[in-house]
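Could you please consider the sequence and fold appended to this message?
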Amino acid sequence: AIFDELFPDDEVSRTTMLLFGVFEAADLSHTGLARAEARRMTGGLFDTVAGMVRAAQAAGRAPTSIDPGQEAIVLVSTLTSVSQGVLGGHLTIEDGRAAISYALDRALPPS
């Protein structure tokens, strides 16, 4: 559900991901603009996704061989990267959604 909400396929999620990109670019290019709140938000997203992976592992729906923390980093990074590709016109919404689904299905296979 989190990935569906953040994927830029409507006006609200498009604006959300555009703002994410703007703040990320500002953070990278002007260290004086970097804010601890932004890092806590991203860290919270990593923690939430890691919790989803742990829950799927406990329910037998995800491989126990994967590290939930590392998988969360990979999945969130995939979401942000693919979303930027959609926003920039390098990927269609359909191709972006397919890529996100592919990544999620590998870590959290559908039940």
In short: The mean pLDDT is 88. The CA atoms of residues 13 and 108 lie 23 Å apart. The two ends are 15 Å apart (CA to CA).
